[in-house]
Amino acid sequence: MVKPGQLVSVSVHSLTDKGDGIASLEGRPLYVEHALPGERVQVRLTTVQPSYCQGTLVRVEQATAGRREDFCAYTACGGCQLRVMSDEAQRVLKRQLLVDALSGQGLSCEVAETLAMADPYHYRNKAQYAVQPGPRIGFYAKHSHRLVEADHCRVQEPVTGEVVARIRDWMQDRAVSAYDETLHAGLIRHLMMRNGVHSGELMVVLVVAESPSEDVLAQLVNKLAPVPGLASLILNINPSRGNRILGPESRMLLGKPVIEDSLDGLRFAISPLSFYQINPRQTEVLYREVVRLAGLQGHEVVFDLYCGIGTIALFLARFAKTVHGIEIVPEAIADARANAELNGIDNAVFHVGAAEQKVPELYQAGIKAEVVVVDPPRKGCEQPLLETLVKMQPQRLVYVSCNPKSLVRDLAWLCKHGFTLEQATPVDMFPHTMHVETVALLTWNRCAVQ
Predict the structure, then answer these.
(1) What is the pLDDT of residue 450?
(2) Interstrand relation of 396-401 and 371-374 (parallel, antiparallel or unpaired)
(3) Phi, psi (5° rounding) for residue 101?
(4) Is the pLDDT of residue 143 over 80?
(5) pTM, to two decimals
(6) Which CATH number is 90-118+279-449 given?
(7) Quick one: fold of 7-64?
(8) How far apart are CA 342 and CA 306, in angstroms?
(9) Domain coordinates of the chain in residue numbers?
(10) Rounded average pLDDT over 368-395
């Protein structure tokens, strides 16, 4: 009978969806962070339960060919689970995750090689740092509110490290307190940054429980003004308890309320609350694959469901007769309309509403799409929407998903009700994590429902 603290030697056979290695120990799964499939590892047990065990990696006794040196100094941060896996091994893994998900639902189709980044670092255009008394600025460790200070992050834009250092210096110099969530006291809660990767513009949002004095804010402006590319400095006030980052009130301290970025020649305005893909370089890759699979000839009516701020819709509008974008968040639709105007695009129409309600309304009004693109949240599509898609019978349905499990569930249902799954392409939007984005193409098969 094994006990906590004991050293064991085990073989790792797979990974959890969080990237932890899984081995077998006395008939139970043993979870080991940073252990890779195919490896023999020595583990010190930390948790022993009747149904599972956990342990820490002590030594790799036999390494897989896909192992590499950890590129990050902040090993307790829970952000990049696959740091010790080579880029090529990650590409293979993410394709296999999609293949396994499809086969688990009895689905088969051509699965392309993973579309991955040539240089998968400094790709994130949004950073959210927690601030705690010290002052300490960093990210939370996995499954906790324990802060891991991180001055330089390999997946964030390099300028974020300079902003972190300047904010820390300002807090120390002016004795500005950090927020203590247990006491609900102190000022500085979070630091958020958004980068326009192609424009070079930087937005800094400092989240506070209450506003500091005017002279202290003036010192903040002076401290951050020299930061390269700084185009927007915003003070956001969040006096509430809880984990919500942004509060209801914002105040401009420097610059403008939005920054701009571009995707494939299209311009987009980004506010603190805008939904905008985290990895713009791979977003271009993803959306080009959507356009390719949509196969537009210029005469089609297209529906873009869960359209957000209109990024996919505006991509498609350049190749279609009309695009109807649907999104439940009114602020996102306002951004989508503004982005259409910003780009001089007049054949994209945006509707506020839940896709599962709005699509049936449009269909009943006689508006039918030849091509439909869906990019739902992780839970996938609602059943009424799937049923309407079957009634509408679009020639091509392009399904974009960030969750293979909900994707294959919906694909299986659609294939049972008249669609044929033609192909699927995994896209690595978040290198060094277990996340994989997928673009799948379905076509309407009339014979299947006759």
Answers:
(1) 45
(2) parallel
(3) -65, -45
(4) no
(5) 0.92
(6) 3.40.50.150
(7) OB fold (Dihydrolipoamide Acetyltransferase, E2P) (2.40.50)
(8) 21
(9) 7-64, 90-118+279-449, 126-263
(10) 94
